[in-house]
Amino acid sequence: MEQSFLEFQNVSFQYREDSPVVLDDVSIQVNQNEWVAVIGHNGSGKSTMAKLMNGLLFPNEGHVYVDGLKLSDENIWEIRRKVGMVFQNPDNQFVGTTVKDDVAFGLENHGIPREEMIKRIAHSLKAVGMEEYEDHEPHRLSGGQKQRVAIASVLAVAPSMIILDEATAMLDPKGRKEIMHTVNQVRQERDVSVVTITHDLNEVTLADRVIVMNKGNVWFEGTPRELFEQKGDLQSIGLDIPLVSKFAHELKELGLNVNKQPLNHEELMDELWTLHSTM
Amino acid sequence: MNSSMVIGQYVPGDSPVHHMDPRAKITIIFFFVIVVFFANSVASYGALALFALLSVGVTKIPPRFIAKGLKPVWFLIIFTFILHLVVTKEGNVLFSVLGFDVYSGALIQGVAISLRFFLLILITSLLTLTTTPIAITDAIESILHPLKRIKFPVHELALMMSISLRFIPTLMQETEKISKAQASRGVDFRTGPIKERLKAIVPLLVPLFVSAFKRAEELAMAMEARGYQGGEGRTKLRELALRKIDYMVLVLFTFVIIAVFLTRA
Amino acid sequence: MDITFDNVSYIYQPNSPFEHRALENLSFQIPSGSFVAVIGHTGSGKSTLIQHLNGLLAPTHGSVTIGDVMLQAGSKPKNLKALRKQVGVVFQYPEHQLFEETIEKDISFGPLNFGVQEEEIKQRVQETIEAVGLSSDMLERSPFDLSGGQMRRVAIAGVLAMNPRVLVLDEPTAGLDPKGQREIMDMFYKLHHEKNLTTVHVTHSMEDALAYADYVIVMHNGHMYMQGKPLEVFKEKEALNKVGLDVPEIIELTTKMNKRFGLSLEYKKQSVEELAAEAAHKLKGGSV
């Protein structure tokens, strides 16, 4: 039985009483060590959801549980240590004047002793492949590098969960690959849940589970494979499906018996190869 | 964009002066500035000048960098010198220029005041030339630390300074980007009457402010997410420590002060 | 308007320790009416290149000719205003340039600077706000009350209202969701044809370069690395990979299919449906 780490129980949220409801009676959970992708068009409520996960916002109705703790004013600092967050704009979350100082910031906030800090900085910069940039100033780094530093800053505090809130949206393709590679790497090294808020479909295919948000509601919940099986519906809420899925759908309609919904080129090829050799 | 120009005039180096604790440097400069006003003989001036020039020499910073830093004040130094020549009427008349009598006292005083001025600026610019802005911020936080008892927000002040330093290059880049975007929409920042040019600043300043506020808001949220709740209970990565070199220089400087007071006229 | 780069080099902060050669001996021609994609990874010189198109930068060596305006190294550029009137630039995150109290005023700002008559401006504001997919009921509202995607559209309308003959787009869809991205690019593509514009589109998206451009320029380290029709350029997978660029996914997929199953599918801009039909046909046929 998988252990749930984070749970939303009937969460509703609106920014002001007279403003539209952003989240409407949402119940979800994220398990320990699980990678969950949250997608939805702009304004679907996905970023608000992220901010409710570490107490940057509080629900109007319903409850948020993190590691068994019910989110409240008393325990937000404890929860924020357990749930780290990387934001969209690489510049606006870089606090330190150098890479090293930036990673130190979170550790300083949590009162980690200096000796321990130095160890953790070295270790977490290594985990994201930025150990050679310790003394670099932020304006000498690319967007992707800054986001890797942001991930290192979060890792240094040793959280049980990391949220990437559209952390790749402002990056070029190279930067995006760097970040996805980094996340994969980190997950191999330590136990940590990951929540990626995104509209990049290729990021979705890497996740264990997908939650699709639409107009403040959970529109779909399941594996990426299950999601991409329903082609038309996804397009109706302003999202798209990856090219391979589209291609596989077409082949299926043309009478080729593609059984398993492919998530990448290799899976499609293998599937077709099986068919091909039995035809 | 040239960032080295933006962040003060720090010249990276490996000299003992670079390696000194910024607090030691600030302390020395503080007392130097006071003691300069007590110097009134050739020997006392000599002691201070020797100390200042020696410090400059040790840094191995090319003299042209230092001269560049002094550029804006050369005029002031020369002006003070001439003013003294004209106004002071002590001692014997040495010679006359354009109908003005130049007294010996005036010459001496002119040289003394200009030298004092020069030394002040030289020694203070040595601080910014050999110390990164962030190290200066650390030093200020440490020096002001006792003021915490009277509820002076020392930590907040230092954090504010370091965040400003961090964002100066970012905002410079932003300014350039926005001014290019507006220039593409037909704004002319360079020519035209003053009034028009002032008006042209609005399309630059408004977006700059909007973006700075947005950045501030996002930064505040990011800081909160990373557990920032004020200075209470925080530890620090940057640590200042006085080392042998600092003590040696402090002792040397004490001798200079003693020499100044012993050789006063 | 024809655009010609003749041996253009651009050096940032020449003769200083910070000297940086951003463009080197760049020569190419863009005939009037083309839709050109400029691709290359970050730092390849794309952004320096497009700043020459409306005289924000002047070449350190060589010359740039846009229509009848020539920017030449060493001589002070003339007619800059006339040039900027004809070359509209949509920068990355253009919503950052909004500053007026109302959407209408912001869209009018460009044309006003270029001395367009008031009546004419009013008409252009109406036209452009609709062109970018917003309602003209919004004109009196503050641009700062809009959502990010809407602000982007208003900023684009502000550039379109200048009625440029050349449209320079620097990643105009960065940060938008997939639907927003498609809508904006489709809009530019439509305008390009309707108004017979010359369009230069800087992009990281190979899919966009393939879908919209009729010519592709690949930049690398300030040099012209490759140029040609999209289908020709994207045949060179290895050369592109070498400088950190991918080929569009549909081409990649076609190549892989050919290799694995010994097919001879050729991608020539057919739809996914058509390509799948061809593949299915060949796969079935191949097994007989």
Automatic annotation (TrEMBL), chain A:
Per the record, membrane topology reads: Peripheral membrane protein
Q: Does the keyword Amino-acid biosynthesis apply?
A: no
Instruction: Specify whether Secreted is a keyword of the entry.
Output: no
According to its UniProt entry, this protein's organism is: Pontibacillus salipaludis
Put simply, this protein is called Energy-coupling factor transporter ATP-binding protein EcfA1
| Protein family membership | Belongs to the ABC transporter superfamily.
Q: Its Gene Ontology molecular function terms?
A: ATP binding
Principal subcellular localization: membrane
Q: Which Pfam families would you find in this protein's record?
A: ABC_tran
Q: Which SUPFAM superfamilies does this UniProt record tie to the protein? A: P-loop containing nucleoside triphosphate hydrolases
UniProt keyword list: ATP-binding, Cell membrane, Membrane, Nucleotide-binding, Translocase, Transport
Residue ranges of every copy of the ABC transporter domain listed in the record: 6-240
Q: Where in the cell is it found?
A: Cell membrane
TrEMBL record, chain B:
Task: Report the membrane topology from the UniProt record.
Answer: Multi-pass membrane protein
What UniProt keywords apply to this chain's record, in alphabetical order?
Cell membrane, Membrane, Transmembrane, Transmembrane helix, Transport
Q: Which InterPro entries does the entry mention?
A: ABC/ECF_trnsptr_transmembrane, EcfT
Under the heading Pfam families, the entry gives: CbiQ
Primary location recorded for the protein, binned into one broad class: membrane
State the source organism's domain of life.
Bacteria
Compartment(s) where it occurs, according to its Swiss-Prot or TrEMBL record: Cell membrane
Membrane-crossing segments per the record: 28-57, 69-87, 107-129, 245-263
Q: What is the documented function of this protein?
A: Transmembrane (T) component of an energy-coupling factor (ECF) ABC-transporter complex. Unlike classic ABC transporters this ECF transporter provides the energy necessary to transport a number of different substrates.
State the PANTHER family in the record: PROTEIN ABCI12, CHLOROPLASTIC
Assembly state and interactors? Forms a stable energy-coupling factor (ECF) transporter complex composed of 2 membrane-embedded substrate-binding proteins (S component), 2 ATP-binding proteins (A component) and 2 transmembrane proteins (T component).
Q: Which family does it belong to?
A: Belongs to the energy-coupling factor EcfT family.
Protein name stated in the entry: Energy-coupling factor transporter transmembrane protein EcfT
Q: Which organism is it from?
A: Pontibacillus salipaludis
TrEMBL record, chain C:
Q: Where in the cell is it found?
A: Cell membrane
Quote the EC number: 7.-.-.-
Q: Which domain of life is it from?
A: Bacteria
Top EC class for this record = translocase
PROSITE patterns given in the database record: ABC_TRANSPORTER_1 (PS00211), ABC_TRANSPORTER_2 (PS50893)
ABC transporter domain location is 3-246
Check the record and name the Pfam families matching this protein. ABC_tran
Keyword line: ATP-binding, Cell membrane, Membrane, Nucleotide-binding, Translocase, Transport
- Topologically, how does it sit relative to the membrane? Peripheral membrane protein
Q: Which InterPro entries match?
A: AAA+_ATPase (IPR003593), ABC_transporter-like_ATP-bd (IPR003439), ABC_transporter-like_CS (IPR017871), ABC_transpr_CbiO/EcfA_su (IPR015856), ECF_ABC_transporter_ATP-bd (IPR050095), EcfA2 (IPR030946), P-loop_NTPase (IPR027417)
MF-aspect GO terms: ATP binding
Which proteins does it associate with, and in what oligomeric form? Answer: Forms a stable energy-coupling factor (ECF) transporter complex composed of 2 membrane-embedded substrate-binding proteins (S component), 2 ATP-binding proteins (A component) and 2 transmembrane proteins (T component).
Q: What does this protein do?
A: ATP-binding (A) component of a common energy-coupling factor (ECF) ABC-transporter complex.
| Family according to the record | Belongs to the ABC transporter superfamily. Energy-coupling factor EcfA family.
**What is the recorded name of this protein?**
Energy-coupling factor transporter ATP-binding protein EcfA2
Specify the species.
Pontibacillus salipaludis
